[in-house]
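Continuing the series of single-chain predictions for the mutant panel. This is the parent chain; the variants come on the following pages.
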Amino acid sequence: MENVLLCHGGVGSKNRSTPDMGGIAESAWNDDPLTSVVNAVVNMEDDPRFNAGTGSVIRIDGSVQMDAAVSIPGKFGSVIGIEMVKNPVLVARDVMEKTPHIMLAGSGALDFARRCGYEAYDPRTDRSKEAYKKMIKGIRDNMSENEKYLEFRRMIEQGIIEEPHDTVGAVTRINGKFAAAVSTGGASPMMKGRVGDVPVPGAGIYCGADGAVVATGIGEEIAKRVLCYRIYSKIGSMPLKSIIEKEIDYFGSNLAGIIALSRSEMAYFSNGSMGTDLYVEKI
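Parent structure:
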């Protein structure tokens, strides 16, 4: 059984190529499974080409709210709608390891991060600011949040602005032990407070004694299907790649992608462009 780290940089729109993964998995490698997946996600959160951490998309109200989660068998931690931190996945790990809870949201997550020593950090970049300017151009001040959202959807459908779906994530199997981590800057457009699949156990991430699964794509659709747990629960019933392909088929035109490991297999599949990176320990 190989020791392996597999990561992805998100599933994107059909007309956008995903960033070059550039040895992210190899540079993240550590003998501890959880540290390996967290390292990989931190690498991507720090790279402004990815929609996670630095470079996260700006929401309708001008805020940047990020979600992240980590998991090992029997343990889980996530942050929901956290703002003004550089690496949400590190805060999610601290939620799992330093609190009796599994999720912290909004101002509570931020207060916890500050108590843990995470300094204030603005994740917006020139690219995300420019995208936001395009998104709000022509929007009237007297529009309700729902009217703004519908107008943004129209602009996306007409190709005026691009819709990111990226969620970065990683899974690993080291000496028979599994771990998973995910992080996202969200989708655009989003209302303030919107939550997708990433911080919800079983939806965008699941890790158990038999494997690890993380997802990327349209968060609402992934969460409604509890996609990662559905895949995990079927491990062993057929080849892992076949399980993933069958589940992704249900999404039709809605973007979705999966990376997964079982005790003997590794697989990934998406219905759109999805950058992946793999490191297998040389022993």
